[in-house]
Specification:
The protein has about 900 residues and is of the alpha+beta class. It contains 33 helices and 28 strands. Strand 19 and strand 20 form a beta hairpin.
């Protein structure tokens, strides 16, 4: 592959067999046949019906379908319909979300410009961009989207916004001169790339690559080649579902065999009992509760400006261990700001951030600098405001800019110093201008002085260019002395190494000679006024959010396409990579995969990173065992966003390609929103764990009751229909309330859970077993007691059913805190949905117990107050034993922490 950016224009044209006037139509047609159209290919995709069927290949859905078959066998058609609806809804969600990568590819293909102005047959014609071929010469003007990869051969003040491709925070000044062969993508100033946008000036460029061979095509290929990944929750649910399915089948088969061989029951009777056992063990409500809990998380995140595009990403956010963030606009404000003004042996610090003209100019130990009493500062501010083509606008109380962000920063400086653009232009009208061009890297303006006798030229540009035109410098007292070149060069270098963009400002006076300004007039006899240091400052709330992430055990890494010095300075201000230098894209390029895994573990700031570098960094972190969230806004970020466990795109400033590739979109482009979303994600996972801890003892207690009855040759305390009623009443009314549980305050003070952590830890198994045994003991203890006391089987079974349901009501309150006590006002009454669910469940149980319809369908019977007291005793026993167990667990953990 040719390094076109390193060749001069003559060599480039020769190798491409073309000229500055472009190709002939016949030659272009021949090349179009050879190279193909300038389009990105649409990859083959599965048929919709196959993608839909594939969504049903899920063990949990198999368990759900098995439950539906069992309930259909029992002719509980409502239960069957609910289960099948849950299966279909879950499959449809997966079907809709699977198309997001394809949508991202469509967005990248749409970034290719539809039309282009091309030199053909010696004249400029308007053609479809798809017809471009290598060797065509394209004319770019402000506002054009670059239609193919170009080597620029003529430019006039051309600036190109490459943020979507490189992450560069400001438009890049282009040149026709070659650059170093090893230049990173963002430093190739002699080239323009497909998908970027010309924002100022104009230029001609010869097409060097089209379609899949462009930088955009390379990113498209990267995105198409990324394998689909699953989320931690789905992996855990998959393992849990497989484990549960195996346990249910083994226990059911063993019970069936034991019943026939030991008790001598008929196969038909045992089959009915086994159906009851299976129905009691299957967690019919789990997928529905999962969906509801995740959906509620989506709503809460939306209120915090985080728009979730893919439901499981809600929970995945809670398990994130590393956040890889872009710099511009996410960690920073994307608003260039003057931070310091360096006059001769005199420094002025500028307060405030962003485009709002709020902030003081201070010198020394916080002393306010008066512009009028400091001549070099006064003239430097005036020069920055007058030698300027940008505009600063107050739009409904919000400050916005038109034009170059760096020039806008100088206008904000002027307002902070008390000089508006309108007042400056009225006092010193512009007569002529030498516009900024990347070739000479300065801008000069000519103004009529307020004495109407003299003219004043203001000069603004790169320090080395302005310094070369200066013979004097303006001192603090207003006197002019010979310029100290070494001093200014040192100050410029120091400021640049702090990550600031440096501009120099100078002036010279002359007699009025006709109100015209030539290029030569801007090259000599100037007096240097000041250097200004400009930076895109960090968001204050992002700095706080990074600290919060660190407290929560989450590592934050900054990956940017910007320069290393700038990345290092912003990283230091954010609390990232302090004391270490950034790793650059060139260094990443030289590392093999094992070495990269070691480097990425120890480095928090990466600069000059290309799309491949970002993708490799995400992959290396995942191979190190991390759950990775990746932020991005450009098309260059789409491959890494797709590969990451959670891709986060910018909503306000992001490209459509990035949004389509992402799992979450930030409406406010703010890193602090990610931290808030992580907090909500952790809360969602906590609520899912609480539900599982609440649900399994219900199923376990019911299953143990049936197993014990079979083993001890007792009358079955629960019929299959009653088992399904318990699951319907408890899961549908009680369990759903835990989805509304507010996020605990301590959630961001603990480390992320390990990605390999099982949903059912040893502690969970113990808790489930303990509560299951308590529920079984309560139901199975009351049932034979009542039979021995002479009550009917219907009454005894009704007591057993109510004992389990009431125990579930009390255990629901226990489940609000996995380890913390609920014996306080907030624990008992802090969730109105829990209280509402318990009230609804009491109503259902009264209907179940006393109405003739339910007595006929389920075989229930009315209870006396004494019998209700026994039921209440079972519930209170479960509640207080569970609280006592949590107290013991807390004591054990505290002792371990002390030791």
């Amino acid at each position: 592959m040719h390094q076109w950016h390193a060749l001069d224009t003559t060599a480039t044209l020769d190798r491409l067999g073309t000229s500055p006037t472009g190709l002939s139509s016949d030659e272009a047609e021949r090349r179009l046949t050879e190279h193909g159209p300038n389009e990105l290919p649409r990859p083959p995709s599965d048929r919709w019906w196959w993608r839909l069927l594939r969504q049903f290949h899920n063990v949990l859905l198999y368990v759900m379908l098995g439950a539906a078959v069992i309930t259909a066998f029992l002719q509980h058609w409502i239960d069957t319909a609910v289960l099948l609806a849950a299966v279909v809804i879950n499959a449809l969600l997966g079907f809709v979300q699977e198309g997001r990568a394809e949508s991202a590819l469509d967005s990248i293909r749409a970034m290719l410009a539809p039309r282009a102005r091309v030199h053909r047959d010696g004249r400029i014609v308007d053609l479809p961009a798809a017809d471009l071929v290598p060797g065509d010469v394209v004319r770019l003007v402000s506002g054009d989207r670059v239609p193919a990869d170009l080597r620029l051969i003529r430019v006039r003040e051309l600036r190109v916004d490459e943020a979507a491709l490189t992450g560069e925070s400001v438009p890049v000044d282009k040149t026709s001169r070659p650059v170093h062969a090893d230049s990173e993508l963002g430093d190739r100033r002699s080239a323009a790339y497909a998908g970027t946008v010309a924002v100022f000036g104009q230029g001609d460029g010869v097409v060097t690559a089209t379609g899949v061979h462009t930088e955009l095509g390379r990113i498209n290929a990267l995105l198409a080649g990324i394998p689909k990944t699953t989320t931690p929750l789905l992996r855990q649910i998959g393992r849990f579902a497989r484990w549960l399915a195996v346990v249910i089948l083994v226990v059911a088969a063993a019970t069936f065999v034991l019943g026939i061989a030991w008790r001598g029951e008929s196969p038909a009777q045992m089959f009915t009992l086994v159906v009851a056992l299976a129905a009691s063990a299957i967690p019919e409500g789990l997928p529905a509760i999962m969906t509801v809990t995740l959906s509620l998380g989506v709503q809460r995140m939306a209120r915090r400006n985080a728009v979730i595009r893919r439901l499981p990403a809600v929970e995945t956010l809670g398990s994130v261990t590393v956040i890889c963030s872009d710099k511009t606009g996410t960690l920073t404000r994307n608003e260039m700001t003057v931070q310091k003004v360096l006059c001769a042996h005199h420094r002025i610090d500028v307060g405030g951030i962003g485009y709002a003209p709020v902030g003081a100019l201070t010198a020394g130990e916080g002393t306010v600098a008066d512009r009028a009493s400091v001549p070099p500062l006064d003239l430097a501010v005036r020069a920055g405001v007058l030698c300027n083509d940008a505009r600063l606008l107050d739009v409904d109380g919000a400050w916005q800019i038109e034009g170059d962000p760096t020039e806008a920063a100088l206008l904000v400086l002027g307002r902070k110093a008390g000089l508006t653009q309108q007042d400056a232009e009225h006092a010193w009208p512009r007569l002529d201008v030498v516009p900024f061009e990347s070739e000479h890297r300065f801008m000069a303006t000519l103004h009529r002085a307020d004495d109407d006798v003299h003219e004043r030229i203001f000069l603004k540009g790169a320090p080395e260019k302005v310094l070369a035109a200066c013979t004097h410098q303006l001192e603090k007292d207003g006197s002019r002395t010979v310029v100290d070149t070494a001093y200014w060069s040192t100050r410029a270098t120091e400021t640049a190494t702090q990550g600031l963009r440096v501009l120099a400002l100078a002036y010279r006076d002359r007699d009025a000679v006709g109100a015209t300004l030539d290029f030569e007039d801007a090259e000599h006899d100037f007096t240097l006024l000041a250097l200004v240091g400009i930076i895109d400052p960090p968001r204050e709330e992002a700095v706080v959010a990074v600290r919060e992430c660190h407290r929560a055990g989450i590592t934050v890494k900054m990956i940017t396409g910007d320069h290393a010095d700038t990345a290092a300075e912003i990283g230091t201000q954010m609390g990232l990579g302090i004391g270490s230098r950034p790793v650059t894209g060139a260094e990443i390029e030289a590392l093999d995969e094992p070495a990269l895994r070691r480097v990425v573990a120890d480095t928090d700031v990466f600069a000059r990173a290309s799309p491949e570098h970002k993708l490799r960094l995400v992959r290396a972190l995942q191979e190190n065992g991390h759950v990775v969230a990746m932020t991005g806004d450009g098309v260059n970020d789409a491959p890494a966003l797709t590969r990451a466990d959670v891709g986060v795109a910018m909503g306000a400033g992001g490209t459509e390609a990035a949004k389509e590739a992402a799992d979450m979109v930030l409406a406010d482009d703010n890193f602090a929103t990610i931290a808030a979303a992580v907090r909500e994600g952790r809360g969602v996972y906590d609520n899912l764990k609480k539900f599982v801890l609440f649900m399994l003892p219900t199923n376990g207690g019911e299953a143990l009751v049936v197993i014990a009855a079979i083993l001890f040759q007792l009358t079955l305390p629960l019929t299959p229909a009653q088992v399904l009623w318990i699951n319907l009443a408890t899961v549908s009314t009680l369990g759903l309330a835990l989805a509304f549980e507010p996020t605990e305050a301590s959630v961001m003070r603990r480390p992320p859970r390990p990605p390999t952590e099982s949903l059912l830890s040893a502690f969970f198994v113990w808790r489930v077993a303990m509560v299951s045994v308590l529920m079984m003991a309560g139901a199975l203890g009351l049932f034979p007691w009542e039979l021995e006391a002479g009550t009917t089987v219907e009454v005894a079974r009704t007591i057993a059913v109510n004992a389990i349901v009431v125990a579930e009501m009390f255990y629901l309150i226990n489940s609000r805190r996995i380890e913390g006590s609920v014996l306080n006002r907030e624990g008992l009454f802090g969730n109105r949905y829990v209280l509402g669910a318990i009230t609804a469940c009491i109503g259902l149980q009264l209907l179940y117990t006393y109405t003739s319809f339910f007595q006929t369908v389920f075989g229930s019977a009315g209870l006396t107050l004494v019998e209700w007291a026994k039921v209440l005793g079972v519930g209170l026993t479960v509640f207080f034993v569970a609280e006592a167990e949590k107290w013991v667990v807390r004591r054990i953990r505290a002792r371990r922490a002390e030791s």
